[in-house]
Amino acid sequence: MPTAHVMEQSRAIPVDVDTAFRHTLPMPLPTLFSRWYGPISPVKQVRDQTGDWGTVGQTRTVVQVGGGSMREELTLLDPPRAFGYTLSGVTGPLAPLVDHIDGQWHFAPVGTGTEVTWRWTVYPRNAVAGLAMPGFARLWRGFARVSLGQLSNELLRR
Fold it and tell me: Record's superkingdom (predicted)?
């Protein structure tokens, strides 16, 4: 299997760590990921989720605008420091590039607020897809920057 690629983006948000964690984890994905960034599409809806999102082992289906989808499983819960998940069963435009993704959100005190860091470890589908990862990483960091801005706006409204 090709080498995994780590992509990361951070943003300082002027809310405390507990608030940032507590409101980010259950935030509806279509709210957080509502904008296109180049070829990376927004989340249209979440299906097959039982109860509030917040128990390790929970799964749901994330459906993107344009027809792509993936299965998300919550794999790590360390309040208020971090949560993690795995995206697998990728369909749509990302399918030729991505076998699966391990994602994590980290929350750490910084100044008078919280530094929120979103990290993806992307496992390419094959060696050819691995060659595309540096370009995909640049796009993803832009998508993540926009999404973290949206998260900041949502957290500041609370």
Answer: Bacteria
